[in-house]
Amino acid sequence: MLELKNLYFSVPENGENGGNLRNIIDGINFTFEDGKFYAITGPNGSGKTTLAKLIMGVNPISQGAIIFNSQDISALTITERAKAGIAYSFQQPARFKGITFRDLLKIATGIEDENKLLEILGRVGICPLSFLDKEVDAKLSGGEIKKIELATTIAANPKLAIYDEPDTGIDLWTIGPMVSLLKKELAENHTTTIVVSHNKAFLEAADVVIIINSGRIAYHGNLEGAMPLLDDLSVCTYRDSCEGDRDAGCYR
Amino acid sequence: MLDAIDKSLLKTVADLEELPKGAYNIRKNGKLLSRHVSANINIETNADETGIIIKIKPGTKNESVHIPVILSQAGLYDVVYNSFIIGDDAEVTIVAGCGIHCGSSEPEGHAGIHEFRVGKRAKVTYVEKHYASGEGRGRRTLNPTTKVFLAEGAHAEMELTQIAGVDEANRVNEAVLGPNSLLLITERVLTDGDQTAVSTNNIVLKGAGSRANMISRSVMKGNSKQTFYALMDAQNKCFGHIECDAIIMDNGTNETMPSLKAGHPDAELTHEASIGKIASDQLTKLMSLGLTYDQAVNRIIQGFLK
Description:
heterodimer; A: 10 strands; 34% helix
C-alpha cells in the first residue's frame, strides 16, 4: 500500500532562489491499494509526472510524507526505494554508450542465465534473441527503447510499478499488447500499477482513474465518473483570461 | 623467466596468463626476453637494433602475433621502432601493449613507434593497451606513435587503450589510406590525479573510395587533463567520420579539436564531439534499478570505455 500524506512539492517562482514558492504539487492525500491499476491523467503541466517522480524519489518532497508498506520512505534515495520494491519506467528512457539490454537486465535482476533472461523477454513480448545484445544507445528507435524500458521495469518483479507515459512513441498496434502486459503482470504478481497517461486505452484498463489539475487531485474513481470532467473545458487554466472567446488563439 | 610483476603486467596489457600460442616477441626492460616465430609470421631485430620487423606472409589467415613490452627498471626510458609488413590478402591480429611497474621515485617510460604497411586486400586487427602501476612516485610516461599505410582494398581496425596509471602520454596516430581501404580507430584514454594525455591524429584519405572512422572516448578524473586533436584530410572521393566523447569528473579538463579538410568535391566528412559530466538521466535510470550513485557512475564509465 502506498500512502501520500499531505504532499507538497514547491519550486522558487521564476527560478529565483529565496523568492516566492510555487506549489507544483499542492497538498495531495491519497492511498494506492495493493494490486490495483491506477491511471493518472490531467492537463499538461498539472503535475502528473512530478507526482510520479516524487514517489520514486527523483524529486524530493517539500512537505508531507510518503508511506510505502508501512515504511516512511520520504527521505529514502532512489536506490533505496528501488530496493524496497518500487520500479519506474521513464517517459524518455536514458540512452547509454557501451551498455546493452542484457547489461541492464542483469543490473535490474542479477540474472545472467540465458534461459532465465529469455523468460523475461517472453513475458514482455520481445522475440528475437539478438535483442539482448543490442546497445541501449542513440541508434535505437523510440519503440525499441520503450520495450527495453518496460522490460527492465517489470523484470525485477516490483511491488509497485510506475509508468510515465509508456505509450510515447509507440505505434497504435503495440498499445493494446502493452495494456494487456501491464494487466497480466498485475494479475500474476499482484503488482500495484500506476500509469501516467493521456491515452484512453490505459484509462479504460484502470481500476481507478485519477485526474490531477494544478497539483491537486480533482477526481478519483471509475472512468465513467471521470468523463464529465475530462470533457469539461474548465480544466483549462486560461479560461479567466480568454473568457471562452473562440478566437483567443488557444490550441487546447 | 617471468616474475610475479611481469606476469601481472602481461595479464593486464595482453590478457596473457602464460606464453601465447603463435608468434610472439616479449620485450622486458629494453631487451628481448623471448621470441617465437611461426611458419607464416617472421620476427627479426632490425638493422639498427632499435626494434623489430614483423613480416606476415601474403595469404596468411587466422593467425595472431603478440608483442608486449614490460618495464620495471627504475629510470629506464625505452624507445623502440617496430615495423609491420602485412602481405597481400593476409588476415592477422596483432596484440601489443606496454605495462610499466614503477616501484621507485625514478621515472620510467616507453615510446613505441609502430609503422604498419598493410598489403592489398589484407586485414589487420591491432589491439594495444597501455598501463602503469606500482607504489613508486616516479613519473610514468608512455608515448605511442602509430603510422598506418593502407594499400588498395586493405582494412585496419585499431583499438588503442590507455587504462590507468600513466602520468604523461603523447599519443600520435597517422594514417594514409589507399583506394577502397578502410580504417577504424577506437581510442580510449582514462586519466586521474594530475595526469596529462595528448592525442594527435592525422588521417589522410588519399585513395578514391577510402573510408575512415575515428572514435575517441576519454574520461578525466581528479585534476587530470586530456587534449585531443583529430584531422581528417580528404584528398579524394571518400568518407571520413570523427566521434569524440569525453566525460569529465571531479576537476578534470579537456580540450577537443576535431577538424575536417575536404580537398575534393566528392569527399564526405562528418564529426561529432561532446564533453560533459555523466548524464543525470543515465545515473537516475541505474539508481532506479537498485545501484548506488557510485556504482552507477562506475558502471557507466565501464560501458563508456569498453
